[in-house]
Design a protein that fits this description.
The chain is α/β, with parallel strands linked by helices and about 180 residues long. The protein is built from 8 helices and 6 strands; from the N terminus they run βαβαβαβαβαβααα.
C-alpha cells in the first residue's frame, strides 16, 4: 500500500508517481492512496485513468484534501506501507516526517533537505532529483522485493528517524536544556 500526501500542483510532480506505477510489471500489486487536492486534480486523475486502466494489479484512490491530524488514523486504516513524493523542490517535508512518525519508509527525490532525511535502503529510498518513470518503479520494486523482516526493520528505522530528528516534543526538551 503506497501513500502520497501533497497538493496537486506542478512542483509536486504527482504525475511522476502515475508514470512510475504504469512502469511496474503487470504482476506487482499496488494500491496507491493520494491525499491532497489542487489545480492539477482533474489532470492527474485523468492521467491515472488513462495510464493505469489496463494494469490489473494497480488500484488507486484520490482522497482529496484531508486534515493532517486525520492522516495517522487514515494511514493505519489503509495499511500504508510506503510513502512517496516526487517533488521538484522541498525543504524538510512535514508529510515525510508524518510518515516516519507512523513507521512508514519513504521514497523521495533528492532535492532540498530530503537527502538529509532519507538514508537509502535504511529508512527509505532516494530517487534522483529528476526521476524517470523507471526509476520510480525500481524504488517501489526494491521495497516489494524485501523480506517481511527487512520491511519491518525499515519501518523501525523510519520511526527511529522521526524519534531522533523530528519529534517536536523531544526537540523542544533538547532546546530547553
Amino acid at each position: 500500500v503506497l501513500v502520497s500526501c501533497s497538493s496537486l500542483i506542478p512542483i509536486k510532480r504527482v504525475e511522476r508517481i502515475v508514470d512510475g506505477l504504469a512502469a511496474l510489471p503487470q504482476e506487482v500489486p499496488v494500491h496507491w492512496h493520494h491525499f491532497g487536492n489542487g489545480e492539477l486534480e482533474e489532470t492527474v486523475a485523468a492521467q491515472a485513468t488513462r495510464c493505469l486502466e489496463n494494469k490489473e494489479g494497480i488500484r488507486y484512490t484520490f482522497h482529496g484534501y484531508v486534515q493532517n491530524t486525520q492522516l495517522p488514523e487514515i494511514y493505519r486504516q489503509t495499511g500504508a506501507q510506503l510513502f512517496i513524493t516526487t517533488s521538484s523542490t522541498e525543504g524538510l517535508p512535514v508529510s515525510m516526517m508524518e510518515a516516519y512518525a507512523m513507521g512508514i519508509p519513504v521514497v523521495a527525490t533528492a532535492v532540498g533537505g530530503i537527502p538529509e532525511m532519507v538514508q537509502d535502503g535504511e529508512n527509505g529510498f532516494l530517487l534522483s532529483a529528476d526521476p524517470t518513470a523507471e526509476e520510480v518503479a525500481q524504488a517501489i520494486l526494491r521495497y516489494t522485493a524485501l523480506s517481511a523482516q527487512d520491511k519491518a526493520a525499515m519501518s523501525r528505522c523510519a520511526l527511529a528517524s522521526w524519534q531522533e530528528h523530528f519529534d517536536a516534543a523531544a526537540n523542544a526538551e533538547k532546546l530547553m536544556t
